[in-house]
Amino acid sequence: MKTIVRDAAQSDNPNALDLAVEEGARRIQRGELVAFPTETVYGLGADALNATAVAAIFQAKGRPPQNPLIVHVDSSASAEALAALWPPAARRLAEAFWPGPLTLVAHRGALIPDIVTAGGPTVALRVPSHPVAHALIRASGRPIAAPSANLSGSVSPTLAAHVLESLGGRIPFIIDGGPAYNGVESTIVDITGTLPRLLRPGPISIGRLQEEVGPVERLGPTGAPDGPLRSPGLMSRHYAPRARLEVSAEPQRRMEELRARGERVGIICSAGGTGAQELASTGSADALEQILPGNAEDWEPMLYIALHALDAAGVDVIVVERPPDSDSWMAIRDRLTRASAPAD
Length: 344
Ligand code: TXA
Ligand code: MG
Fold this sequence. Notes:
The protein is α/β, with parallel strands linked by helices. It has helices spanning 16-29, 51-61, 76-82, 88-97, 114-117, 131-140, 160-167, 206-213, 251-260, 274-282, 296-312, 330-339; strands spanning 4-7, 34-36, 43-47, 70-72, 102-107, 122-126, 144-145, 173-176, 187-190, 197-200, 244-248, 265-270, 289-292, 317-321. It has an 8-stranded mixed beta sheet, with helices on both faces. β9 (187-190) and β10 (197-200) form a beta hairpin. The radius of gyration is 20 Å and the shape is globular. Residues 220-229 have low confidence and may be disordered. The site of threonylcarbamoyladenylate has 28 residues, from β5 and β6.
């Protein structure tokens, strides 16, 4: 299959965005797959109410059928219409964070096909803030089911080029809307229980959630306190680059150790951290050494870019400086834990 990439931001064509969105919307209406930018990562969309179209998402990604999809809609009212129940916590979180990088898991309404929820009783809903995502949902007039637009298990795409590299030849159409600016996947909160429960940390921190709704449970469905947070269908290894990934408190030392063994090693560390200082002192900075700004909000938009770049450079191992234990780093810690898990 030939994959068409349509640039929504051509400087010489003020209508490029509208044209790309219109073509994407027609394709969604016809039951085709369309990759599109959101504020978190690129999504691979299909009409959420068309079970055949949704099946093509699982096929293109090689995604296990027991892993449910997020449904993207244009407003809180549209989300509520697809849920069977919309408790006060849902209303408050939606008001505070939509449109934006928050996904709410609610009891599923009757319109949602089984394949979207993997047969489960709940549905994940999100109102994205990215103008292209919003326009595509509006123009198609459909709720859009969309996982991240990458082969199952690998690092999510934050650029159209990442989508093309992972799914080129497997999907018909990509809307290139520039970089996905948050850079990590949405925060997922289950609001079907007595207390809201964080299923996947993301750009909206647990602290921000608690400011809006009070206590939020941190336990994943596995029940292990502070263990890996899980959504159904997620293998423990996920968000993983091709290269082996290691997290280290002494990334520079670990890198040298591995290089001495003859491995081709890339490193990702924080500016201002000891790893970066040592790299600067050896004066060896090159493309295999990705130094990111020193706080979590700055790491989020850059981590996947760095992982994709090191994979493209063909390294055997990526050593990442261990992030701090504070809540603001929770999403980064979660993704690194899963990216470094052994394959199961
Ligand atoms: O930021 C995002 O959330 C991106 C953009 C495209 O919106 N999407 C995304 O989708 O990351 P995906 O499929 O890569 O990850 C969605 C996660 C999966 O771990 C899935 O198991 C979980 O959401 N999920 C989906 N439906 C669920 C449900 N009903 N209950 C619990 N978890 C659910
Ligand atoms: Mg994904």
